[in-house]
Structure formats: structure tokens, C-alpha cells
Write a structure and sequence with these properties.
The complex is a heterodimer. Chain A is α+β, with helices and mostly antiparallel strands. Chain A contains 4 helices and 4 strands; from the N terminus they run H-E-H-H-E-E-E-H. Chain A has one domain (23-107): Glutaredoxin (3-Layer(aba) Sandwich). Chain B has a single domain (4-180), classed as Histidine kinase-like ATPase, C-terminal domain (Heat Shock Protein 90, 2-Layer Sandwich). A 6-stranded mixed beta sheet of chain B has the order 3-4-2-1-5-6. In chain B, helix 1 packs antiparallel against helix 3, helix 1 packs parallel to helix 4 (113-123) and helix 4 runs antiparallel to helix 6.
């Protein structure tokens, strides 16, 4: 593979920014990535989360995946787990929904009422 | 699935769920035909589904007896006159060979392969991916080599992912150029494959 030199440059910058941050990850975003989730657009949702977190300069939130949760009708399903708070499950989260969740829930600390299941 | 790249992501989910730690993808083409070969180092198909892993009622799932992933890929291939051959690779893992005629009016577009690969790296960072394209098997991704350069930084780090997405888009250009030249199919960009 070419361009691994460029990758080393990014690695060094990321390491510097991680070294400046203490306390580890404060939240986890879990996207349903089973067959039903993928067919419903979970891939676009997941990539939108990564882009929105990047754009908001949020570096202490992890984005990860899980399998089918059994509510295929509500896919893409997303669980937001903020440390010290009860987890919130969101349904039918599009890329636009992902951006709203980052702005309102992750950055401002308010559950996105129209998307949360309950 | 709206395009072939979503099928690819779904197959990689199967590998990760089965406990594989590495998957290898080779995408080649001849005329208007795309030949995909995907293998992993997992345990392979269990005996109870081995007679026909593409049967939606033969599944490894334990919560309910239906699995659609391979059935959908088979349908996607067969509606273009192609086929899906599930089998066992040399290491005992799953080996899938799919052929899809992208020149067929019912073919789905290729989609954005780099997005499928990035979503796989984010979703299952422990699953190493090796991706080659073309008849000459040109390597476009080897996550072991990438991780070797990262020195502890996670492959799912957003900045690393941004870099890899751009790099893959450029490395996959021969595949996209081939698909774009096919009448009916358009290109790797969703929307261009729409034939309404």
C-alpha cells in the first residue's frame, strides 16, 4: 500500500491529541449492523456519526457496532450510552438523525425526543 | 440491499459474528461480469447449514430460525444470470464466490466500496481485511499493514478513517472506472445506477 508515510503523520497528530486528553471515553454509540440494519442504512448512519463527531471535535466518544436486536422494523437502531446515565435507544436513525443525536445528545446533553424509543 | 457494496458489508458481518479474525476479498472483472471472492479464517459453515447456506431457513442464528444475508446475495447474483457459490476455503473458513453481470438491466449498482470497508473497520476492528482488485490482484488494503503503522492508535479513529476512506476511493479507481463504462450500470456512485 502506498501513502503509509501520510498515515504515520496522522498517527502522530492523533497521539498528541490523545495525550492531551485525560479520563478516557465518556460515551459509546452503538449502531445495529446486522443484515436488517445494513439494508435499512446503518452504514450511512455509522459514517455520519463519525463525520459529525469529527466536525464537532468530539474525541472522547466511541462508535461501535452490534448485531440484530430483534426490532428490525426500527432499524437502523442506535444505542447511546453516556457514562453515568441510563442508555437511550434510538430508532430509524438516518444520517440526518445521527447528526442531530451528536449535536443534541452528545454535545448538549439532551435526549432527542422525536427519535428516542420508549 | 441497495447496492453490491452493502452486500459486501453484510458478508463481513457474518465473518465477524462467526469469530473470524481475518477476511480476504478479491474483486475482479471480465467483460461486464464482476467476480467476487470472499474468504475468512473462521470456523466455516456449521454442519446444519452446510447443505445450502443460502437457504434463509438454514441459519446459524440462535434467536430465530431465519437468516437473510446469503439468500439476498444469491438473489442479487441470480437475477443477473450469475450465481453464488458458498464453500469452504483451504483453512476451513468460509469461501464465497459470487458472479454478477453488471450489464444486466436488473443488476444493482456497485455502490461505494470504500464506505463498506470503512464501516467494517469501524464495526469490527479486530477483523483484519485484505482487499485486492483486478485480474492482477492489486492490493488496495491490508489492515495488518495499517495497524502496524498506527502504534496503538485505533484503526476506527475518525481521523484515521477519514484518511483511509480517501485513500481507498483513489485505490479503487480501476474498479469504478470499469463499472462506469458499463451501459445500464453507471458507476460506484449511488444514484447513477438509477434507471428510472
Amino acid at each position: 500500500m502506498k501513502s503509509l508515510d501520510d498515515l504515520r503523520g496522522i498517527r502522530d497528530e492523533v497521539k498528541k491529541s490523545l495525550a492531551m486528553r485525560a479520563g478516557g471515553q465518556r460515551a459509546k454509540i452503538v449502531v445495529g449492523m446486522g443484515t436488517c440494519g445494513i439494508a435499512a442504512g446503518a452504514r450511512e448512519t455509522m459514517l455520519a456519526f463519525v463525520e459529525a463527531l469529527n466536525a464537532a471535535a468530539v474525541t472522547d466518544v466511541a462508535v461501535t457496532a452490534t448485531g440484530c436486536a430483534g426490532f428490525c422494523d426500527q432499524e437502523p437502531l442506535v444505542d447511546v450510552e453516556v457514562r453515568g446515565e441510563p442508555p437511550v435507544r434510538y430508532g430509524r436513525v438516518t444520517a440526518e438523525g445521527a447528526r442531530r443525536i451528536v449535536q443534541q445528545h452528545i454535545v448538549a446533553g439532551k435526549v432527542v425526543e422525536g427519535l428516542a424509543l420508549g | 440491499m441497495k447496492d453490491l457494496s452493502h452486500h459486501l458489508l453484510d458478508i463481513l458481518e457474518n465473518s465477524a459474528a462467526a469469530g473470524a479474525t481475518a477476511a480476504s476479498i478479491h474483486a475482479s472483472w471480465r467483460g461486464t461480469w464482476l467476480d467476487l471472492e470472499i474468504s475468512d479464517n473462521g470456523p466455516g459453515f456449521p454442519a446444519r447449514v452446510r447443505h445450502d447456506p443460502t437457504d434463509p431457513f438454514a441459519t446459524t442464528r440462535t434467536d430465530r430460525p431465519i437468516g437473510l444475508g446469503l439468500a439476498l446475495l444469491r438473489a442479487t447474483a441470480e437475477k443477473t444470470g450469475g450465481r453464488l457459490e458458498p464453500g469452504t476455503g483451504p483453512s476451513g473458513g468460509v469461501l464465497l464466490r459470487a458472479s454478477v453481470n453488471l450489464g444486466h438491466p436488473d443488476a444493482q449498482p456497485l455502490g461505494e466500496v470504500e464506505d463498506a470497508l470503512c464501516a467494517a473497520m469501524l464495526s469490527w476492528p479486530a477483523l483484519d481485511l485484505e482487499v485486492c482488485i483486478g485480474p492482477d490482484r492489486r492490493e488496495v488494503l491490508d489492515t495488518r499493514a495499517v495497524k502496524g503503522q498506527l502504534d496503538g492508535v485505533e484503526i476506527g479513529n475518525p481521523r484515521v478513517q477519514g484518511f483511509l476512506r480517501r485513500l481507498l476511493r483513489s485505490e479503487l479507481a480501476p474498479l469504478y472506472d470499469w463499472a462506469a463504462a458499463i451501459p445500464w450500470n453507471g458507476s460506484g456512485s449511488p444514484g447513477k445506477g438509477c434507471r428510472t
